[in-house]
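Observation: inputs received (chain + inosinic acid).
Thought: call the complex predictor directly.
Action: predict_structure
Action Input:
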Amino acid sequence: MKIRVATTNLHKLEEISHILSPFGIEVEKLEAEKTEVQHEDVAVIARKAAESLCRHYGDFTVVEDTGLYIDALSGFPGPYAEYVYRTIGIEGVLKLLSGVEDRRATFTCAAAICISGVVKVFTGSSRGVIAERPRGTGGFGYDPIFIPEGYTSTFAELGVEKNKISHRARAFTALGVWLSKEFKY
Ligand code: IMP
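Observation:
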């Protein structure tokens, strides 16, 4: 079985392929412009984008959207994580948290898939804390400053171990379980 994921982020594609390979699911990159509605819930954003993409690209089209919700900032940047990363960046986020003791944060990933014109959304979250400074060279995005619960290393230091415990692992494992049951391949 093959799914097509609408993303330009090769790191995400690599992680998704890694997570879905035990299910025998192949992951292909789909070059397509996503429409992104504004909403605080990434599940709603992914669903809306998938609804519009599947009209053009049909079944097994997948849209993935991820947000980073920082407790002490009332959930900021949430679904605006991409914009914040491109503008103030990791250093800017660390500045916002300078002197802040409560560094808890949640990554949430939503994976929306289109089957027979109907969109199904799977979500996964990963709770953790924002590090005091960037650490590690693996991963991408906010990985150098996110320490998942139960660990002392950042996602960037964990390497492929990230794919066992991340928000993306949880969302796409749920998708893989569902696809393998639904299609009994
Ligand atoms: P989007 O889902 O591509 O919109 O991602 C939003 C922002 O969060 C981007 O700046 C990504 O680089 C970052 N991001 C998404 N997923 C992850 C992750 O697993 N680790 C670290 N940063 C991520």
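Thought: report the result.
Final Answer: The chain has one domain: 2-183. The CA atoms of residues 2 and 26 lie 5 Å apart.
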